[in-house]
Amino acid sequence: MKKYIVRLTPEEQALLEGVVSKGRASARKIKHANILLKVDANRENWTDEKSAQSFCVSLNTVYLIRQRFVREGLESALNHKKQVRPSRLPILDGKKEARLIALSCRKAPEGRVKWTLRLLADKLVELGIVEGISHETVRQTLKKTN
How many domains does the chain have? Predict the structure, then answer.
């Protein structure tokens, strides 16, 4: 027996059919809409196995779509789940970013006309502001601050 039974209202069915027929949403969203339409107990009531095979997804994906629809609603089942926290914390927080900017505004080291990204990255490590940083991170930070 299925634990999460999808029962779409007529409004939800119309919305999902609109997503599928227009084809302007992401491929993932269209696929999830199709799956929800097919596993709906009030309509076709496909099995998870048939849905997974038909839409080239894993059985677990169909199960999770059902689960998110029943627990959290239609929007959650269609859209990406928001991350609770970023997978990786930024290397430069506000204070470290400010020190980078201040450093880049200072006079370049002796023998140099101006700071390079690699010199700035090396200087941040030398001063103990960060343990390690790439020149690309320095570039992105400086570009962001203009």
Answer: 2
